[in-house]
Amino acid sequence: MKKLLDLLSEEMGQAFAAAGYDSNLGRVTISNRPDLCEYQCNGAMAGAKQYKKAPIMIANEVVAQLAESKAFKEAVAVPPGFLNLKLSEEYLRQFLTDMAKDEKFGLEMPKKPKKVIIDYGGPNVAKPLHVGHLRSAIIGESIKRIVRYAGHDIIVDIHLGDWGLQMGLIITELQERQPDLVYFDENYEVEYPAEAPFTITELGEIYPTASAKSKEDEDYKQRALDATFKLQSGVRGHRALWKHIINISIPDLKKNYANLNVDFELWKGESDVHDVIPGMAEQMKAEGYAYVSEGALVVDVKEESDTKELPPCMILKSDGAALYTTTDLATIMERVKDYDPDLMIYLTDKRQALHFEQVFRCARKTKLVKPQTEMIHIGFGTMNGKDGKPFKTREGGVMRLETLIQDINDEMYRKITDNRDVSEEEARQTAGIVALSAIKYGDLSNQASKDYIFDIDKFTSFEGDTGPYILYTIVRIKSILNKYKEQGGVIAEDGAFGLASSDYEKTLMLELAKFNAMLETACEETAPHKVCAYIYDLANAFNKFYHETKILAEEDETKKQGYIALLVLTRDVLETCIDLLGFSAPERM
Fold this sequence. Notes:
The chain is an alpha/beta fold. Among the domains are: 4-87, 2-Layer Sandwich (Gyrase A, domain 2); 165-259, no CATH class; 272-380, Rossmann fold (3-Layer(aba) Sandwich), CATH 3.40.50. Helix content is 51%, strand content 10%. Helix 17 runs parallel beside helix 20 (557-581). The longest helix is centred in the last third of the chain and has 25 residues, at 557-581.
């Protein structure tokens, strides 16, 4: 189903052609003066120079060709040559009817869907998730849902940090605390215990302790580096401990991500490509891409067009150790081999922009990817407290993600129980749903690359540009539809839309008609904030219509059915959009 603006532009293009002008001049846009008209066309202004004619003359000739138009009920030429347009109510009704019948509200599916891999999450195992992991999870999950809804084949990978120094630190601290564990006995040859010698709670304490020690004790840090080397070299006891760390950490990570309604198809980590790195490095050397510089193996990625200096991409350090660039390049190589993606999207803190610029250039130069394979890095800004600094606990530490979620849940529970009598179970359940909307909408309504202030009071408000406001609107619609059915009303499946009888009704219909254009843009630009902006405008349009219209009290049954069809479509579009943002609506609030 074509987008409304494309249909209107075709209609306007035909009018330009009929008047003797280039049909490409007929591009229609949403009016920037809604007090004067709904749509506008500036083609006469653009054509004036080409046809050596006053733009108002061209505009008047085009208006004459629109006299029998079924799309426009009003087309006015305004000096010096603008075309102000208003849509026919019948045309709009038919568009919404077609939209309501379509499985995805008129969104056209791609003729050739892309195979897309999205890399987001990226937590280190053995460390609890904290607020710094929030944006990657929320933005990545929404982009996944938007791109998948738009008809593409999506695979998402959490890309765990499970092979670096933090593993060596944990093993070193364990050896200090429990030196007699069989894992440290070089002569131990039987099977290792099935149960880990630590719990997830203990693990959460072991790593920060070890990390702090390594910063103060050079000998301790060297032992941790040695332990990391032993792990990566395949020492049995170290590998067994590593497996315990992974087996305990991943279920905890899955639980915390599930609380955010976030999931992944692949739970791979840096360790999955460890064995292919030597071969990759040798191939880069053999083909003349990589060379030794100051003991390290590097690939030049600078291009003649660069205005800033871009350092070489380091493949191996002087001691032969791999880096993040190495594992990212090896992961790209494996993803191409296993999945042959058309597009790879990476979502991380924007401070990693240089890293990914080097990695992508190196992957292209060394032919790890096909020339047509796209690679995109989406860098997000920081989540800050009201003081404008990165979000912290009151004590100044980094807040655990589960603590933040609980704080929002508690605030929503307080607001829900303050407003009405409700059972404890329902209040808690509703609070959890609304709290998730507050967290996710609060983040996603900002452009990903920008820093934003995490304001609990603002995000949990039921008024303004917030998740709870959107949910409150959906619940209001559900309540009206339930009352309609209780009164014996039957909701028509095919959507018996009426002709807009007020400006408020027409405005709501026009907002609904923007859905497929908005979703197409949100997908192309990987921009969840476009979905947020759309549903905020849609919710506002509905609430104005609601306050100015006696929906259930309407005596004209045909008109009432039109209202109900409009409510059903508004509810369905809003619920589809919030699902794309990664949250849902309760039945009542």
